[in-house]
Each structure stands twice: as structure tokens, then as C-alpha cells.
Amino acid sequence: MATTTTDIEADIQNHAHDDHHHGPEPGLMRWVKTTNHKDIGYLYLWFAFIMLLIGGAMAMVIRAELFMPGLQFVEPQFFNQMTTMHGLIMVFGAIMPAFVGLANIQIPTMIGAPDMALPRMNNWSFWILPFAGAMLMSTMFMEGGGPAFGWTFYAPLSTTFAPQSTDYFIFAIHMLGFSSIMGAINIIATVMNMRASGMKLMDMPLFVWTWFITAFLLIAAMPVLAGAVTMMLTDRNFGTSFFDAAGGGDPVMFQHIFWFFGHPEVYIMILPAFGIISQIIPTFSRKPLFGYSSMVYATGSIAVLSFVVWAHHMFLTGMPVAGQMYFMYATILISVPTGVKVFNWVSTMWRGSLSFEIPMMWAVAFVILFTIGGLSGLMLGIVPADIQYHDTYFVVAHFHYVLVTGALFSIIAGVYYWLPKWCGRMYNEKLATIHFWWAVLSVNVLFFPMHFLGLAGMPRRIPDYSLQFADFNLIASVGGFVFGLSFLLLAYIIVDCIRNGRVVKEARVWESAKGLEWTLPTPAPYHTFNEEPPRELILKESSHTGH
Amino acid sequence: MSEIQRKQRGAMVTAAVIAAVAIAIFSLTLILSGK
């Protein structure tokens, strides 16, 4: 049997044998043993949300310490652990798993596939994560404390001068990377091989396209990160000198390797966001997506460019002027395909029959606020300006606009968009509106003053500061606490929706939504598309061939 | 062979090729860094 029956068929047969309703296994073991793409997607999303709250709590510690000049609550060493763990948890524990969760739930239903291509590996990809996350956080309770060298873990801070717990940190990063690579393999194989035969590549929804390209970025970038931490491990424990100048190594090489991973990582966290927004805006503009093929090519261009700009993070390490010029121009070139995307979203809305349901409000906020993050990125890409801004709060403001009001907002938009389809219930839209304005206003109070702090010269990753930075820090901290509290409301809205929300029965929850997922009953059944959807249906449901 | 089986067999090949690429990139990172 094992050699002749495939994973999906085995799964379907097992369910058919054990449960005549083809439903999930009863009890908690459902979640441990599940190979169902929707179940695994929900696990990813809940895991990401828990990690978001943990990482957010660390951000609250950081903002409490920075509320006033002087040392208030924590020791500087612990402050450094907070900034480090906050970054690592948010990047590897919250944003990336949340996007993988959305991919798991949505991609098979959007391409007419019965499940992910490799469902058992999918289960493994998820269940590695809680153990890796727990190991990462356990380092904070070890002798010498947890990692305190920043999320970029530059050598020699992370090698010669790091606490012993760093070896556990390395193992955790290895496991997180392994999970990501397996997830990416699954997505590529699903899109390439499991897609309904009537769906050509240029028929695929933008969310599928952006994730497909993101998966290739993961395959190219994550092994480089694995290589970097492996070399850290051997430098620390086995007498090698990859990053130790005393042994003939080069600490600056660590930065090159890290950012060769790190810059594509930025796009790993934003390309799926572009996909989500490209699904939502046409729905609530009641128009086809403007410039579908240019969106696909722009995504591909951004992906390629993301591998040739890494050293713009390192202008101050010293490099030839020709190198600076190259990395500056290549970086600024990325604004062209990114601008194409923003132009297309605005053009989709232009003269559309707009309505501002909750997902659309988040999508519009994304377009505006992400663009602010993109513009400050352009400023940072210019060498002489970067020499001034480097390692200041301007950088912190920039990447939080990209990752919070960009990536995180798109995830929230996606959850508000697809949640009624997943659970068959509508959330409390009044509360969701309050949540939107609460979050959007407070997030700007939190991050916008950081631009001014950075321009005035306040360095990042420092627990104390000069008096002239006091006012803006106070404002940012107040914004931070208010923004942090908004996530408790989000948790309430989601749980309340799942348990008590108004029942929704329409297949097309949003009347102008297009896509195969909206042809499924609401809530989406446990097994979907065991039969391929016909090409006529695929073309009819294509979001870019006409409403 | 059913349609799903046929697709999944293709998916296994795709997955193997992609995994090999990932391992190659990991190895190259170590080799080039050690030069």
C-alpha cells in the first residue's frame, strides 16, 4: 500500500474509512496528526499570533525602557536581549509563519488542488516550528542570558563574545530554516504539479503568483542563512576561523553572507503581502486588477533584484566607491517594479465602484503606509544619506513601516478577507472598524516620530539616550502601548467571530470577489477540489479577465 | 494511475530537484566562505 498509494489518497481513504463524513479526526490528536492543508494553515496562523503577542510583549519592554531618558526598568544587557529576541521572533516566528499559514489554506483552493503536494511533509514543516520557537526562547533562561547581539547576529559578537546559549540559538535557526525550506518546496511542487490542468500560469491569482516567486526566494536564501549559522557553530566549537581575523578569517564576510540572505528575506516578507492586497483591492473596487501581467513581471523583477543589492546594508563597513555606486543604483532600481505595483493598485481603484469593507480599509492603509516605508528605504539607499542615517532610529522607522504597516497589515487584511470563508461566520464589523482606526492611528504615533529621532541622530539598540530625544520617545512609547493593546481586541474579534459570529451561507462572502475559493461552499469543506474545476470556471473566476 | 497519483509523482520529482538545489546552495556557501 505504502509504495502505491499517494499521501493525499491515503489521507482521503483513511478519512473515508474512519469517518464516513470525510471530516477531521475528533479530539486534539487531529491537530498533531493532520495532513489537511486547511488544518495546518490554521495551526500556522495561531502559532504566528501567539508569537506575535510574545514578540509584542518584548516590544512593550523596549518602549517602557525608552519612555524616559535614563535606565528605568531593565539592565542594558537584558534590553539588548529584548531587541534581539523581538526581531527574531517577529521575523521567524510571526510574519513568516503567518504567510505560510495563509498560503497553506488558500493556495490549494485558489488553484483547484485537493491539498498541498506533500501533505505529510507539510505536517512536519509546521510541527518543527513550536519546538524551534521554544528552544529560541529558552535561551533567555540559560546562564549568561539569551542572544543579545541583535537579530543580525554579526560576528564576532555572536561568536567570540556571545553567551553559551548561542549554540541553542543556532540550532533553533537551523530548525526554523529547515521548516521554511520544506514549506517552500511544498508550495513550489503544489503550484507546479497540483494546479488544475485548466489553469495556466498566467491564469493564477496574484496571491499564488507572489507566493510561488517567494518560495524560490526562500529556496535560494534560507540555505545561505543555514550556512552562516553552521560556520558560526564551527567557529565557536570546532576551532575554525571563518569569521575570526586572528585565524585568517573575516568578520565582514559574515555581514556579506548574512545580508545575501537578509535582503531577499525582506522580500520574502513583503511579496506575499503584495499578493494579498492584489486580491482584496479588485474585490472592493469591483474592477479587474489593473495590469495583471505587469504585476507578475514586477514581482519577478523584485525577486531577482533582491539578490544583487545586499551590500546597501553595509555602506559603512568600507567598500570601494564603485561598489557603493553599484549597490546604490541597484537598490534604487527596485523602486521601479515596486512603483509599478503601487500604480496598479491605485489604477485598479481609479473609477472603481469602491466600498470600504474592513479588508479594503486595511488594504488602502497598506498602500499608503507601505509607500511611506518604501520612500524612506529610497533615502537609505543613497550612500551619502545612509552614512548619516545608518544605525539610527530612522532605520527602525523605515523597516517598521515596511514590516508592520506593510507585511503585518496585509496579514490582518487577509484574515479579515478570508476568515468568513474559513469559519462560515462574519466578525463583528463595528468592533473591527474600531480595531482598524485604533491600530492605524496608534501605529503612526508609534513609528512616525522615530523618523525625527533618527534624523536627529538617536542610535538604535541603546537603552538610554540624551535629553533632546525625550519628547519623541515619550510619544512613540505611548503610541506603542496603545498599538500593542489593539491586538487584544483583534484576538477578541477573531475568537468571537469563530464562536458567536453571524452565520454566513453565501459561497461568495463578498459579492464581487473572484476566484475558485469563492465557488466553494461556506464554510469551506474539509476536503475540497477532489475533482478538478473546468477551465470555463477558472476563466470565469479569474480576477483579471473581467467582472 | 489516477490523476492525483500522476500529479503527486510529478510533485515528488519537483520536490527532489528543489531540495537538491537547496543543498547545493548550502554547500556552496560553506565552500566559498572557506576559500
Topology, element by element:
The complex is a heterodimer of chains A (547) and B (35).
Chain A: H1 7-18, H2 29-33, H3 37-65, H4 76-110, H5 119-138, H6 166-194, H7 206-237, H8 251-268, H9 271-285, H10 292-305, H11 321-333, H12 335-349, H13 358-381, H14 383-389, H15 393-423, E1 425-426, H16 429-455, H17 470-500, E2 502-503, H18 535-540
Antiparallel strand pairs in A: 1-2
Helix pairs in contact in A: 3-4, 3-5, 3-17, 4-6, 4-15, 5-6, 6-7, 7-8, 7-9, 7-10, 9-12, 9-13, 9-15, 10-12, 12-13, 13-15, 13-16, 15-16, 16-17
Chain B: H1 3-33
Helix-strand makeup class of chain A: mainly alpha
Total helical elements of chain A? 18
Count of distinct strands of chain B: 0
Series of secondary-structure elements of chain B, N-terminal to C-terminal:
H
Radius of gyration of chain A equals 23 Å
Average pLDDT value of chain A?
94
Oligomer: heterodimer
Total DSSP helices of chain B: 1
- Rg on CA atoms of chain B, Å: 15 Å
Number of strands of chain A: 2
**H/E order of the elements of chain A?**
HHHHHHHHHHHHHHHEHHEH
Q: Strand share of the residues of chain B?
A: under 5%
Low-confidence stretches of chain A are 1-6, 12-20
Shape of chain A: globular
Low-confidence stretches of chain B: none
Assess the beta-strand content of chain A as a share of residues: under 5%
